[in-house]
Specification:
This protein is mainly α and 115 residues long. It is built from 4 helices and no strands.
């Protein structure tokens, strides 16, 4: 971890983000354990509405799970001592970028080069 990055407790930021994502997934019925999501009334008069809502929920769950995976990856990097370094070029990631997006993998230069 860079000296600049060590001024902020990124583990705490990442753990708070993980808790938030897990809470959101649980509210949607996709928390840890055996839950498989929200249940929908199959007898509801407008089945297309149910289908649309189910699709929206599944898309949101996919986004939340992806974000949770990124947070878990960042926490593993904290444990390994490699957090705060760009995965592309190896240079330190600016503290402002880490504070804005604690699970970010690349520095701004590498992120811009990808576009």
């Amino acid at each position: 971890m860079t000296n600049e990055a060590s001024a902020v407790d990124y583990r705490t930021l990442l753990e708070a983000e993980r808790a938030s994502l897990e809470r959101q997934l649980a509210e949607l019925g996709f928390g840890t354990g055996t839950s498989t999501g929200l249940s929908y009334d199959s007898n509801f008069a407008d089945s297309s509405q149910v289908t649309a809502e189910r699709g929206e929920t599944e898309a949101l769950v996919a986004e939340l799970r992806s974000a949770l995976g990124e947070v878990e990856h960042a926490l593993a990097k904290v444990d390994e001592g490699t957090y705060g370094n760009c995965e592309k070029c190896g240079q330190p990631i600016a503290a402002a970028r880490l504070e804005a997006k604690p699970a970010v993998r690349t520095c701004i230069a590498c992120a811009n080069a990808r576009r």
